[in-house]
Amino acid sequence: MSNISGQLPASETLNDQPAKRAGRQRRRSVQRRSLQQIFSQSVISAIAICIGLFWSVPTFGLFVSSLRPPELISTTGWWTGLTLPWNFTLQNYQQVLQAQGFGQAFLNSLIIAIPGTIFPLLIGSWAAYAFAWMRFPGRDLLFFSIVALLVVPLQIALVPILSLFTAIGLTGQYTAIWLAHTAFGLPFSIFLLRNFFASLPSDLLESAHIDGASHLRIFWNIILPLALPALASLAIFQFMWVWNDLLVALIFLGGNPQHAPMTLTIANLVGSYGTDYQVLTAAAFISMALPLLIFFSLQRYFVRGILAGSLKG
Questions:
Q1: Of 5, 216, 217, 235, which is most buried with the most CB atoms under 10 A?
Q2: Which residue has the higher pLDDT, 78 or 185?
Q3: What are the two backbone dihedrals, phi and then psi, of residue 152, each rounded to the nearest 5 degrees?
Q4: What is the reported pTM?
Q5: Cis check: omega of the bond before 85, within 30 degrees of 0
């Protein structure tokens, strides 16, 4: 008995050695995988930061140039303005704001961009809800037809729409450009919002129908609050497109100075102040300021809105 009892610890030790080695190997493999994940994430983050910084260089250079005196802009590069002593001035912005019609152009851009953003969101959200949760004949075919319009260049539709607006007397008015931006923005609005609405749980809407809620009540009280990320990202896209538009405004407003947006006014400044680069840089940065403000204020919804409807469940 004494021999057997004396041999038990040795046998147990021999049996535990493979298990201990396997445990150490698993820990090492887990550590290696964690280090690889950290390294890969760090590399991806570093690449993303480098791309973001590289992409921001022209905007930053434009901002620095808009604050420099005319004699320095024409003789040195914008990067020399970052060295001491700094020689920045607000005279360029004062000259732009005092230019003929620039303040009115900023107001005209707001008059064009705000309805040109709200109308596609409202109409597109209603149509997207209908395509996602209402059943009617030809629903899928009509939705595919609308999505197919995304591949049609808007330049093809400019001439027939202009002829139609001229025939009914809308050319040169805000109504013409509101209708044009709404029509051009609806296909993408319906496509994005329909995918998001279709990804919502059906039990939620069925419960609302059982409680006696109509489609209108469901849309305003349930769908719209849940669709805030998608609506915010869509608003960013639509507002930036309308705000930076030059072609549609030039065609449907006909160069009317009373209704001309900032893009048309800046294009006219290029002709009037072609050699005054400090004026053009200040005007360009003023036109960029509001879209940048809207983007950064809504950026927390941007990624969620872009991914809306891509994953279900």
A1: 235
A2: 185
A3: -85, 120
A4: 0.73
A5: yes
Structure tokens at 89: 């001035």
Residues with Cβ < 8 Å from 61, sequence gap 6 or more?
78, 79
pLDDT in tens, 187-216: 888 888 888 888 888 788 778 778 777 878
How far is it, in rounded angstroms, from Cα 296 to Cα 179? 28
- What angle (nearest 5°) sits at the alpha carbon of residue 157, between those of residues 155 and 161? 125
DSSP 86: P
Q: pLDDT tens digits, residue range 36-60?
A: 666 677 778 888 888 888 888 888 8
Give CA–CA dist 292/290, Å, rounded: 5
Residue 303 has pLDDT above 70, yes or no: no
**Neighbouring C-beta atoms of residue 280, cutoff 10 Å:** 21
**Rounded to a whole number, what is the distance in angstroms from the first to the last CA of the chain?**
64
Question: What backbone torsions phi and psi does residue 292 show, to the nearest 5 degrees?
Answer: -65, -40
Query: Token pair for residue 122?
Result: 């409202």
Whole-number Å distance between alpha carbons of 18 and 31: 20
Cα angle at 189 between 186 and 191, to 5 degrees? 110
The residue behind tokens 């409202």 is 122
Say what the pLDDT of residue 32 is. 62
Q: How far is CA 7 from the centre of its chain?
A: 74
Do the Cβ atoms of 185 and 155 come closer than 8 Å? no
